[in-house]
Amino acid sequence: MNQMKQDVVGLIYTGERMDELQELTRWRAAAALPMVGRYRLIDFVMANMLHSGVRNIGIIMQKNYHSLMDHLGSGREWNLHGKRSGLTILPPYMSRENVGVYEGLLDALHTNINFMRKSTERFIAVTDSNVLYRVDFSDVVRQHVQNKADITLVYTRDRNARRNGSGRYLQIEDGLVTRMEFDPTIPHYENTYVGAFLVRRELLIDMTDRAVASGQHHFSRDMLSQLVSERVYRVNGYECPGRIWMIDSVDSYYRANMDFLNDEFRAQMFRDDQPVWTKLRDEMPARYMGDSHVSNALVADGCLIEGTVINSILFRGVVVRPGAVIRNSIIMQDAVISRGVEVENCILDKQTTLRDNVRLIAPRNHPIVIAKNLTI
Amino acid sequence: MPQKKSCVAMLLAGGQGSRLGILTRHVAKPAVPFGGKYRIIDFPLSNCANSGIDTIGVLTQYKPMELNSYIGSGAPWDLDISNGGVFVLPPYSKGEEGEWYKGTANAIYQNVAFIQQFNPDYVLILSGDHIYKCDYADMLAHHIQQDAALTVAVRQVPWEEASRFGLMNTDDKGNIIEFEEKPKNPKSNNASMGVYVFTWDKLRHYLEQDEGNPESAKDFGKNIIPAMLAQGERLSAYRFEGYWKDVGTIESLWDANMDLLSNPPPIDLHDRVWRIYARNVGEPPHFASPKGSIRDSLVTEGCEIIGEVTHSVLSGGVHVAQDARVIDSVIMPYAVIGKGAVIRRAIIAEHAVIGENAVIGGETGGITVVGSGTRVVPGLKLAAGQQLGE
Predict the structure, then answer these.
(1) Residue A265 — very low, low, confident or very high, per pLDDT cuts 50/70/90?
(2) In chain A, whose CA is at the least distance from the CA of B267?
């Protein structure tokens, strides 16, 4: 990947509707979902941009964005607090034309068109924030220029990203996108659009203005599909290698996290030369006591483990008391698992407490979510 | 012109730390990793941050590169501020002459101009080889209340060990009446911690006076304190209670790491009020493999544990391969322990690579050390108490 500065400004959209994530997104945007023991989903999106040489990033906020704002702060942890780099938080606001609620990405782009106008980079990379993957935008730019594209859509052939009844699928012919399909009962095309595209910044401003003027709201459903069918512009496809995780339900959230127990996927997402930055907590190392038993687990700093942890992920500051047994579960930060507790196939949100001898066992492959701050 | 500061801290971080053997061959002692996630200097720097002292000069001289880059802008300790912050102060040439720091007092003397910029009332002198949590603001309040020229932090040591320390003999009001360096027959058990609060005018006066004395070793303990006592200055002892450990030797560094594994530990690093900050390297959570086991240990983010870890302290990014065993040991950042290797009562420094089936250290005897970046060939046996380094 290219760490040199690129002529690309990044824009991350965090306004996806995420009803199927249930309690997990009740108080937070999908972008703020805690992931893999110490991250939030947006950290991986940011890492993609930063390791591609993108130095200016705007983040479009929609609802429940407090936890996201708290997480990002001044952008220091991502080295985005300099004079020649920057993190711009773009919260919704009311104007004469709208009430600050985006129907879709196109609305959001239009509302934040000044961010695009004020940027100076030649290209803009726009991404959704509910997808977990690695992509090198500098390579996307290279291919975009080489293919003389007007707009480049990033897609995957990874079947893990396919859903019956939902998603956006692309027909690709000679590298160009020739058809798009939305939420098909069974997808016809093997290429899944991952919700990331690259375009010349001024062209996007122009396209956005025109599409909104003609009454469109949705970027891909309305605008992109029209562009593709009219064939006025060259819509290029960039195939992203590797595993892609779409985080669109409790089940996919659970499986994406659990996949990190696999060496191969960890190696894909965590490379020595490309750290994934996140907000710091200054926790001490994890403390294992004499009777602890931990097998096939990811454990973050600040944990205290006196019990048993199997096939699970522990976020920062989790306490596991003696005799407690955690299996196939995701335990978010500062949760307390008391003596004699049994947890299996569960997702415990932040600061949950399970009192002595509580048993919480969900069926395999149907994880249940325990909401933030609950005591059971 | 910097704003006036009530108190400026000066951290003596230039010593060679030769008693740490090969561990300080490539880095200054304060930059030596400790407790999995920290470096020794994190303790005085975090104490300053938690005590509200935001202007710190760090005096470096010996192998400063790693220490300099570790301190960086000071952001991990909230010291990247525009009015004050952390300043690395190496010796520099002054016109015709340039000179190294010749002693603890001389190091401060050479930086009088740095301190004077802030026009402070008090100067706190710290050293970079102690593990402890101390509220310097409380010590400063004591100093002001006692109207002292110098306040020395002391802690009570067992009488039978007292003759190994510099002792501050006090009257019943806590005023220091005599200083004795490692006396055969101790009169008190108040050991100096090497932490001083000086009234700046007084310190400046005695530093200048000491510089004029060609016989002086230019040392706080040997020269400045005796001179102040002889000239009738008010010296007060500030009694510190709590965990304090000098980690200036291989054994004490290993001991202090092992202290973190006792239950409860004598120093709480989980303390939310008095957090010890460290520069974070951005590693993912550590992975505990189904093939391995971890007991009674501290394990930091970025580790991959496929073998067995018992009663040990592991820094970030350490890899313990299958069937390897790490027992009663301290493993510093990014060290790799090869398949089937056995590590006992040892310190393995940063980026060292232990070959397959090597046997490092023994169940008894001295602490065994493998230096940073050292590659230990497969099958090598390194007996207890030995040091191997590049």
Answers:
(1) very high
(2) A284
Among A66-70, A129-133, B244-248, the range scoring the smallest mean pLDDT is: A66-70
- Cα A259 to the chain's mean position, in Å? 15
The verdict on B296 touching A (C-beta cutoff 8 Å) is: yes
Alpha-carbon span B32 to B67, nearest angstrom:
9
pLDDT by residue (tens digit) across B96-127?
666 788 889 999 999 999 999 999 999 999 99
How much is the pLDDT for B356? 97
From B42, which residue of chain A is nearest by alpha-carbon distance?
A282
Mean pLDDT of A244-273: 94
Mean pLDDT of A348-353: 96
Please answer yes or no on whether B285 and A300 come within 8 Å at the CB atom: yes
- In this structure, the strands spanning B38-39 and B33-34 are antiparallel
Identity of the residue numbered A225: S
Backbone angles phi, psi at B159, to 5 degrees: -55, -40
**Number of neighbouring beta carbons within 10 Å of residue B130:** 21
How far, rounded to the nearest angstrom, does the alpha carbon of residue A140 sit from its chain's CA centroid?
19
How far, in Å, CA of B377 to CA of B381, rounded? Answer: 9
- Pick from B296, B300, B301, B322 the residue to mutate for testing the A interface (most A CBs within 10 Å): B301
**In this complex, do B75 and A36 lie within 8 Å of one another by their Cβ atoms?**
no
Segment among A97-101, A151-155, B81-85 with least mean pLDDT: A97-101
Nearest chain B Cα distance for residue A113, angstroms: 34
Give the pLDDT band of residue A1 (cuts 50, 70, 90).
Answer: very low
Instruction: Looking at the complex, report in whole angstroms how far the Cα of residue B160 sits from the nearest Cα belonging to chain A.
Output: 33
Domains of chain A: 2-269 (3.90.550.10), 287-370 (2.160.10.10)
| Cβ <8 Å between B298 and A284 | yes
* Cα–Cα distance measured from residue A58 to residue A53, given in angstroms and rounded to the nearest whole number: 15
- Tokens at residue B119, please? 């026009």
| Tens digits of residue pLDDT in A309-347 | 999 999 999 999 999 999 999 999 999 999 999 999 999
d(CA B314, CA B287): 13
Q: Is the predicted pLDDT of residue A30 greater than 60, yes or no?
A: yes
Residue A2 confidence (pLDDT) above 60: no
- Nearest Cα of chain A lies from the Cα of B363 at a distance, in angstroms, of 19
- The predicted model gives A233-262 an average pLDDT of 95
Neighbours of B92 (CB within 10 A): 9
E strands of A229-350, at which residues?
235-239, 245-246, 286-288, 293-299, 304-305, 308-314, 319-320, 325-327, 330-331, 336-337, 342-344, 346-348
- Interface probe with A: pick from B268, B281, B299, most Cβ of A within 10 Å: B299
Can you tell me whether residue A251 is helix, strand or coil?
helix
Task: For B26-56, write each residue's pLDDT tens digit.
Answer: 888 999 999 999 999 999 999 999 999 999 9
**Cross-chain residue pair B284–A38, CB shorter than 8 Å:** yes
Tokens of B151: 């306040």
| C-alpha to C-alpha distance for A126 and A103, rounded to whole angstroms | 17
Give the contacts of A331 (CB within 8 A, at least 6 positions apart): A312, A313, A314, A315, A318, A337, A343, A348
- For residues B253 and B19, give the distance between their C-alpha atoms in angstroms, rounded to a whole number: 11
What residues in B contact A37, CB-CB < 8 Å?
284-285
How many Å apart are CA B56 and CA B30, to the nearest integer? 15
Please, are residues A158 and A192 in contact by the beta-carbon 8 Å criterion? yes
Tell me if A270 and B284 make a contact (CB, 8 A cut-off): yes
Q: Is the pLDDT of residue B133 over 80?
A: yes
Reduce the DSSP state of residue A60 to 3 states and report it. strand
